[in-house]
Amino acid sequence: TEQTYEQKQRVEIAERMQKIDERLVRFKAILKKLGYKLDTTREKNNWNASASGTLDGGGIWLQSGDYQNGCDRLEIFGDYPRNYKNSWIEPYEMIEGKWTKVFSPRITVSLSKTDEQIVKDIQKRFMPEFLHRLEAVNKEIKKDRDYRDSKRTNLSKLKSIVTKDKLSDDEVEACKFSESLGSGDDYMRLE
């Protein structure tokens, strides 16, 4: 009996989904060998498989099956922490007297390699640059957090000086101190 087009499509999709499930099992094993804990698998579809692992605030994504790399390549790229506004951070560093954006590594590896070979490739070609960028991102987050904490402390000191030493009791009631952690804008308003 001849299969209809729809039946052929269903069989093809089922085979593809089985291959994706097999790749996800491999991705989990690779992440474990790297010391990462499986964190997320992106929504599985008929074409690609992807998973991420996290460790010490940073993460790596393993992805296969996209249009650019196909099903026989594994793409590895980093996932970095975000700032307090949930925005990506683009760190820069001084190199030979110029501010240069810290490179975000992205490599591909053949899935025909064994898991051990893939892990070695990731450790050699990806991890040094990934860890360098992760350190730069974390440094920017800390610098921003320290600045915001310092600003908040100074505004609190200013509030106490203004409200205790300079204003009458009626004026103290009119002094409002506001802090908006959502937007990050700390300010003091005298009315």
Strand order of the largest sheet: 1-2-3-4-7
In round numbers, the mean pLDDT is: 79
- Can you write the helix and strand succession as a string? HEEEEEEEHHEE
What's the tally of helices?
3
What is the overall shape?
elongated
Summarize the structure in words.
Helix content is 46%, strand content 27%. It is an alpha+beta fold and 191 residues long. A hairpin with a 7-residue loop joins strand 1 (37-41) and strand 2 (49-55). Helix 1 (5-33) crosses helix 2. It is elongated, with a radius of gyration of 26 Å. Mean pLDDT is 79; it is low at 177-184.
In short:
With 191 residues, the protein is an alpha+beta fold. Helix content is 46%, strand content 27%.
Give keywords.
two-stranded antiparallel sheet, 3 helices, 191 residues, alpha+beta, elongated
Describe the secondary structure blueprint for this structure.
Blueprint: H1 5-33, E1 37-41, E2 49-55, E3 58-64, E4 73-79, E5 92-95, E6 98-101, E7 106-110, H2 115-166, H3 169-174, E8 175-180, E9 185-190
Antiparallel strand pairs: 1-2, 2-3, 3-4, 4-7, 5-6, 8-9
Helix pairs in contact: 1-2
